[in-house]
Amino acid sequence: xxxxxxxxxxxxxxxxxxxxxxxxxxxxxxxxxxxxxxxxxxxxxxxxxxxxxxxxxxxxxxxxxxxxxxxxxxxxxxxxxxxxxxxxxxxxxxxxxxxxxxxxxxxxxxxxxxxxxxxxxxxxxxxxxxxxxxxxxxxxxxxxxxxxxxxxxxxxxxxxxxxxxxxxxxxxxxxxxxxxxxxxxx
Length: 186
What we know:
Blueprint: E1 10-14, E2 27-34, E3 37-42, E4 46-51, H1 52-58, E5 70-73, E6 77-86, E7 96-98, E8 102-105, H2 108-115, E9 123-132, H3 136-141, E10 146-150, H4 153-158, H5 161-171
Parallel strand pairs: 5-9
Antiparallel strand pairs: 1-2, 1-10, 2-3, 3-9, 4-5, 6-8, 6-9, 7-8
């Protein structure tokens, strides 16, 4: 029997017509996936009116010289909980290595380190996450709705949120303008 294909370290891209408006043009960095379920952090949309400085202010952390970048909508689960995807050159108490591709931190120590100029070289911040229970993601992957591409630092850290979806498909040689929500019958 073949071992299950886990998506950790991959990027899930929502196909047109996914059927859930929360995931239209979603770009999800898969950070955990095993027999018990999966967790991914969305990077395809930002939280309107919320910048990184606002997040730092909420923890009374001085901004230092850090840029006031947008905060991403990580997903509909625990939408007030913060997630920092970052390069593997920094590690805190809770930092999780994601398939040797990037790291994930969820405590305030990473925010303090970034603000002080002592944090990871590359990073992005999201609020909330996308979560799947046991077998749920596998079920969704067996139907049209998601397309996966390899985890890519340029896609995670260099692209702006509203370009990630199209760039993700382009990295697989697909022009997303040619994708349709449904298929015909023969």
